[in-house]
Each structure stands twice: as C-alpha cells, then as structure tokens.
Amino acid sequence: MNKRDFIKTLGFAAAGVAIANSSSALPLFFKGNRKSTWPEIWTWMGGNPSRSDDEWKSIFEKLHNAGFGGVLFESGVELLAHVAPFAQDAGIELHSWMWTLNRPADEEAKKHKDWYVVNRNGESCYDKHPYVEYYQWLCPSKEEVFQHIEKDALSRVRIPGVSGVHLDYVRYPDIILPKALQPHYGLVQDHEMPEYDFCYCETCREKYMRKTGMDILTLPNPDLDEQWKQYRYDSVTRFVNRLAKLVHKQKKVISAAVFPYPELARTICRQSWNDWNLDAFFPMIYQNFYEEDIPWIGKATRNGVRDLKGKAHLFSGFFLPDLPNEGDLSQAIHEARSNGANGISIFEYEGLKEYQWQEIKQFYESKSIR
Predict the structure, then answer these.
(1) How many alpha carbons lie under 13 Å from residue 197 in its C-beta half-sphere?
(2) Would you place residue 349 in the very low, low, confident or very high pLDDT band (cuts 50, 70, 90)?
(3) Helices 328-338 and 354-366: crossing angle, nearest 10°?
(4) 65 Cβ partners below 8 Å, 6+ apart?
(5) What is the DSSP string of 14-41?
(6) Three-class SS of residue 165?
(7) Residue 276 and residue 267: Cα distance in Å, rounded?
(8) At a CB cut-off of 8 Å and minimum separation 6, what does 324 contact?
(9) Model confidence over 59-115: pLDDT tens digits?
(10) Residue 164's closest CA among 56, 275, 72, 57?
C-alpha cells in the first residue's frame, strides 16, 4: 500500500545510483542565495514508469502552460534521471520527492531490524506496523540510518536536471491522527497511546540517559515528560539539518512536506519544523482531515509563516478531494496567499479536474491575489 492508497482507505476519494554532478543542473532560482525566487505553483506527482517519453513531454508542457513552475516527483533514481530532461525542457523545476524515515520498500533497511523505531510497549516497527502496513519507520537517532538516507538523498540531487530534494515522512509515526481519520481505526486519541508513541529503542534511551541521567522508561508517565518530547523533536531536527548541509554543498536546494503548522506538527508527529534549516516548506494543509473549513487554510498558513520568521519559503499544500466544488481551489489560493504563503502546491497532479486547471491558470495569469 502506498501513500495514495492510505488516503483512500481513510475514506477520502484520492485521485487516482549516484550520477556525476553537473553545474548545468543548477536550479533556475539558485543564485548563491537560497531565498531567491521560486516558482509559485507546484504539484506533487507520482512517477508512473509505464508512461512513454511523449506522454512525459506532454504532461510537463501542460503543467507549464497552466502556470505550474515546479514538480515534486516521486520515483526511484532511474526514472528520475530519465524524466528530468523532459521537465527541464518544458521549463519545470523538478525536485525529487523522497520518502525519508518511512521506508516500506527499502530492502537494505529490512536487513537491519535494529534500525527501526520502537514504541512504548517495546514493539518494533520492523514487526508491527502502526495504522497501515506500509508504515515501516526508521529511527532518526541512529547514525547508520542517517548514513543510509544520506546516500539516497545525494544520489538524487546529483542527477542533472534535478534541482533539489523534497523530504516526506520526515518525522515519527503519528502519535495523534487528525480528528477525521481516527474513527477509521476505532480510535479516540485524546492522549498519547503507548502503541503509537515512538521511539523507545536502545539508542534513544541511551542518548537520553547521557543527556539527562534518566532512563525514560522508569517514569510512570514518560509521555508527559517535556524533556523527552524535546529530545525527539531535536532528534528529527538534527537529522534534517545534517541532510540540508550535505544537499547545500551540492549547490542544490532542499524542502519538506510537513504537517500544517509547527505547533500542531509537534503535537501529532514530533515535527518541530520551524527549527529546520531548509529552503522551503510545503505544509499539507488538508483542512477536512482536521474537521475544518477552507478559511482554516489561511490560519494554518499564517501560523507557519509567523513561526518561520522569514527564513524560508512556504508553499501551502492542498488536497484536491477537500476542494471538490468550482471556486473552492480559488478560495484556498486566496486564503494561502493573503496570509503570507509564497505559493501553493497541489496533491496531486492526477486528481486535477478541468475547472481546477482553469482556476490555477487564472491565478497564474492574473496574480490578482497577491
């Protein structure tokens, strides 16, 4: 089961090798200043290996003509390298959309049971997958895990025509699911349940012991310990910032798909993303997941922009099935842009309806929402 299938199971109708570095692959917006101009309109896109070269060319040309400037592309390195020239020829910035700590298809990781996160009950994610089968999470505190992910990230950004890497699943498993998703699992998560509370592996416990002199499992309620929460925020932050430093050395940029705004992200998945040294953030502001309305997109955007304090770009991410009616997407764009977003991103390309293509094109042509 992949990410799209996961969303379908939650009751939402979702749509449907190192390569030599090349200076010619520098992104159009990279001018020695990672805060220079980025495209305003992006989409997440799955890499379908059955598509022909002519189909890829047509897709990127259609995106460009509608006003899209960037694509967050999910695939392995072989297809990524094959498709990159077509995107570049169409004037599309291509970033490699990379599953980071959740690695269900990672055969190398599966050889190392000790790499996986462990919940408060002592159950390894190697054996027991929370929520869905494809939730198979690695621990950000382990040096071996970092070195493994580092190789993957660098193999992607060294591909000519790939302008950056886009991190997804860069967090712990959901400790609290969004409200609208909990009933699917028969859950009421009004507290941190031990089976979804990660990570209590030996590495995390030992590092926390060295830091505080305390074995976290000796506390009667470890989930309430603020230092222990901070340790896990910091573990992910260190992981991300080390990756960012390596990607920047390649003269490429790095971004991440994150939960709607930092305060909420810390609560539900240990993601303190305003502390990360990335070039851009793509918060997934999927309002129906949180039982909110379209104006909530503006609130979440405003919170994220406030917490970033101008150090990086923010592109508000929309989930198309949450915007089913004509005019909904335009309203979402207005909420995001009027609350400080640098642009938007659509999940996902294959779900775009004809009237939504037109709404995006009208926004691109008018820029009246600025």
Answers:
(1) 18
(2) very high
(3) 30
(4) 361
(5) ---------GGG--TT-SS-TTS---SE
(6) strand
(7) 17
(8) none
(9) 999 999 999 999 999 999 999 999 999 999 999 999 999 999 999 999 999 999 999
(10) 72
8 A C-beta contact, residue 192 and residue 124: no
pLDDT range class, residue 117, cuts 50, 70, 90: very high
φ and ψ of 153, to 5 deg: -60, -45
Largest CA distance in the chain: 61
Residues of the chain with pLDDT > 70: what percent? Answer: 89
pTM check: above 0.85: yes
Q: Would you state the torsion angle of the CA atoms of residues 289, 241, 83, 259, taken in this order, to the nearest 10 degrees? A: 0
CA torsion sign, 280 to 285 to 289 to 292?
positive
Tell me the CB-side half-sphere exposure of residue 356, using CA atoms within 13 A: 25
**Summary mean pLDDT of the chain:** 90
Q: Which residues contact 56 (CB under 8 A, 6 or more apart)?
A: 83, 86
Q: Cα(140)–Cα(138) distance, rounded to whole angstroms? A: 6
Judge whether residue 367 has pLDDT over 70: no
Task: Note whether 189 and 209 are within 8 A (CB).
Answer: no
Compute the average pLDDT of residues 296-323. 98
Cβ-count burial 208-228 (b if 16+ within 10 Å, e if not): beeeeeeebeeeeebeeeeeb
Distance CA 41, CA 94 (A): 12
Q: Is residue 161 predicted with pLDDT exceeding 60?
A: yes
Nearest to 254 by CA among 265, 270, 269, 243: 243
Which residue bears the tokens 């089961």? 1
Classify 227 as helix, strand or coil: helix
The structure tokens listed for 60 are 């990127």
- What are 109's two structure tokens? 């990781």
Mean pLDDT across 187-208: 97
Residue linked to tokens 């020829």: 89
Q: Are 44 and 348 in contact (CB under 8 A)?
A: yes
Task: Tell me how crowded residue 54 is: count the other CB atoms within 10 A of its CB.
Answer: 9
pLDDT of residue 5: 46
Torsion angle of the four alpha carbons 28, 29, 30, 31, in this order, in degrees rounded to the nearest 10: 100
Of 15-19, 168-172, 314-318, give the lowest mean pLDDT range: 15-19
